[in-house]
Design goal:
Blueprint: H1 8-18, E1 29-34, H2 57-71, H3 82-91, E2 98-102, H4 105-112, E3 118-123, H5 125-132, H6 156-165, E4 176-178, H7 185-189, E5 192-196, H8 204-207, E6 213-217, H9 223-232, H10 237-240, H11 244-260
Antiparallel strand pairs: 1-3, 2-5, 3-6, 4-5
Length: 267
Amino acid sequence: MSLKINSVVSFIEAVTQGTSEWDPRTSPWFRGEPGLTETPLLPSLYRPTSSGGRLIENRIVQSFRRMGPAFSHYSTPDKKATDEWLFLMQHLRVPTRLLDWTEGALIGLYFALDCEEPVVWVLDPDRLNRLSTTDDFSPGAFPLTWFQPTGGRVNIGHENINGAWENDQKGVALPVAIKPTYIHPRMSAQKSCFTIHGKEKKPLCELVPDSILVKLAIDPEAIKSIRKELVILGITHTTVFPEAEYLARELRETAISEAASTDPRDA
């Protein structure tokens, strides 16, 4: 994008400009991540490890499903709800084939600002799914990951979910956009949605045309000022992470900011 993004206003303008030719019935999805990463839009499961080896997906998901309930302070999914186990793993930062997206533009911007060279990706999820199947998805309609059809029909969401549990015996070639069951408080707070990689393990930006994916680079020098604007607009740590750990972080940063602006003579 040619527009310099150094404020929330210029960010919204860039989103509007970048999606101007999309179907107006489409609700864009957003993802913030580092602009300098060597693995843009690639799920954590497929990123290179420090040893150069490859993570074994089925071992990870089966181990988490077996041991996870003993470590959880909330109810865990039913053993057969394989999609919900993947959703939970992703939000607890276990390596999976999922990529996090949000339906909230400012939430996507919030996550980007944790990076030195912030980038927000904007995706047309409807057109992604039309690339992944011959089924005619209407705007805003997404495959149900728990539904397994009969009669030779294929549910692309269910197929890519099951690829994780069945060593890629299931799955379509391209990633699929899905709206998950909210099984963790973070998911509702973050307006979570996911893309699920299938048999192709390349970055999403290498698998789809530029017409359905927009990359917005944020001015690194504006990170601090944009963060302040987001706070004014109600996007804070506890907005996105409704947990005590992030309340502590938010209160600590607020106290430090207030202390910096206080005249020592007032003490």
